[in-house]
Amino acid sequence: MNEVELRALFDQIDTDGDGRISVVELAEGFKAEGAQEHLAEEVEKAMKADVNHDGVLDFEEFRTLLK
């Protein structure tokens, strides 16, 4: 996934447009992709990319998550 595609995906998941992906937005993004089963575990695993522990993923953390 190139930088433009990555940014587009981030913006799609960041539904409130604040430049950060919350746990709720992340869960909704997983649901939109059809990931209903094990949703809580997937969100918890993804939030491990939150290196500054502020409870949201910024673009750099999101990029790291998808590498």
Automatic annotation (TrEMBL):
Keyword Ribonucleoprotein: no
Keywords: Plasmid
Pfam families according to UniProt: EF-hand_7
Domain EF-hand: 1-36, 48-67
Record Gene3D superfamilies: EF-hand (1.10.238.10)
The UniProt record lists the keyword Aminoacyl-tRNA synthetase: no
Matches recorded under SMART domains: EFh
Protein name: EF-hand domain-containing protein
Species assigned in the record: Streptomyces yangpuensis
